Amino acid sequence: MAAKTVCVTGAGGFVASWLVKLLLSKGYNVHGTVRQPGSEKYEHLQKLEGASENLTLFKADLLNYDSILSAIAGCDAVFHVASPVPSTIVPNPQASLISYFFNVEVIEPAVKGTTNVLQACLEAKVQRVVYVSSVSAICVGPNMPKDKVIDESYWSDKDYCRKTQNWYCYSKTEAEEQALEFGKRTGLDVVSICPSLVLGPILQSTTVNASSLVLPKLLKGGDSFENKIRWIVDVRDLVDAILLVYEKHEAERRYICSAHTIKTRDLVEKLKSIYPSYKYPSNFTEVDDYLQFSSEKLERLGWKYRSLEETLIDSVESYREAGLLQLE
Length: 328
Ligand SMILES: NC(=O)c1ccc[n+]([C@@H]2O[C@H](COP(=O)([O-])OP(=O)(O)OC[C@H]3O[C@@H](n4cnc5c(N)ncnc54)[C@H](OP(=O)(O)O)[C@@H]3O)[C@@H](O)[C@H]2O)c1
Fold this sequence. Notes:
The protein is an alpha/beta fold. The chain has helices spanning 14-25, 43-46, 51-54, 65-72, 95-123, 158-163, 167-186, 214-219, 235-247, 264-274, 296-300, 308-322; strands at residues 5-8, 29-34, 55-59, 77-80, 128-132, 149-150, 190-195, 197-199, 222-226, 229-234, 253-257, 260-263, 281-285, 292-293. It has a single domain, classed as Rossmann fold (3-Layer(aba) Sandwich), CATH 3.40.50.720. Strands 3-2-1-4-5-7-11 form a seven-stranded parallel beta sheet, sandwiched between helices. The protein has a three-stranded mixed beta sheet with strand order 8-10-12. The chain has a two-stranded parallel sheet with strand order 6-14. Helix 1 links the parallel strand 1 (5-8) and strand 2.
């Protein structure tokens, strides 16, 4: 049987790079979309095993339909991973400017970009689309139950996201809702996966994605940190899950993908027991953010995940190598 051809959007990003690596290792022909072909930020992709024969990079922007269609044409499946992931919530001295920024830089590419990808998939007769959403599309809102396990039936409250200017969560919720709705309306087979905080080693060498800044911040210390709950999944387990929901015929609608739940103070204690010589935060303020997610639906498909210790060690070693742990 001929090898399948699949497309990964935003191929140079943290999650997408691991997905490209996995797909190449399984013998898929991969079309990867990037915005600036020739840039050194994609050099790691060309070095992946099998890339010279089976990886083709396409210049495509999510907001340019024709560029997306060229990358997707001839593909059996599309993994829509690309999305703007801002690293901080910008303070708001000039609301109109900030809203403009988030509309243009975050919401448009996430929402309109996803519709463009789906429309192109329909036109190119793609068999299945896996959309990478986030638990941000599931659990953000004032009325989340603390006494129940959160599963795929929950959605973030978009009005609340708008009011609190949580534009990233707003964009992921709106994009995922529209993606599943698009599938229902047109018959396109769309499955979404909602990961929590993604940690693990980085493959890219000249860019650092937002979630890979979380542990370095803890290791560098600082005065006071909120003792927030962290829901964590390893990037290698996430890409296994993404491939699983593509390959398992029976997969449908949404899948939460989260492996570990830990308070920040306990995470720091765990890191300290492995790496005692970093600085670490000295104080924590308590916050009431208890929620429990279930990845049971994904586990029923056969998903397995590694230990938190393995993820932490491999992350820290990778950050060391990339020079992310030097004190400023
Ligand atoms: N990391 C996490 O903790 C986490 C958690 C939950 C969900 N997710 C989701 O997982 C996905 C990947 O996240 P990541 O952490 O791997 O982020 P990342 O490293 O920042 O990658 C994001 C990618 O999106 C691409 N992109 C952004 N705007 C684009 C546009 N207008 N047109 C084309 N491509 C565009 C970027 O492409 P260029 O290379 O061209 O700049 C980049 O490759 C996102 O959908 C994110 O919402 C991530």
